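Box 3.1 A note on notation
Throughout this textbook, protein chains are presented in two layers. The first layer is the amino acid sequence; the second is a token string describing backbone geometry. Keep the layers aligned when reading.
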Amino acid sequence: MLAQTSEFTICNSMLVEIPYSTVLRAIEDTSSNPFTMTIRCQAEWSAIAQCVNQGIDAYLEACNLQGQDSYDNGHCSVTPHSLCVLLRRLGDTNFRDTDEHSADEIWDAATSLQSSILMVIGIDEEGKYVGREAMGLE
């Protein structure tokens, strides 16, 4: 069973708070440990990079790049707790402009990516775990 860290929450694009415990349950139920994805959008990759490169934040959390976590060549493999941190940061980071994208473009990509990840693991817009079947993914 995955460790539960319910004191922290993720704020989705609908401004609904989702406890880490909900995300961890969804990951466990979907056998998404580690959670893997391929990033093809450069703005999404910029958002991930800025989220990961923050290091330890005010919550004393980091997206740990050791062990099972991997962020390279468009492929990500993320442990459950680091996915919670990444999802939180995708919704609350003050993104900076890059040479290729404005901060607003990166913000849009980040919120879209966050919504997509939540949908894939079966969490609806209201922040409830409903499962992949209810999301039309199985």
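Residues 9-120 form one domain. The chain has one domain: 9-120.
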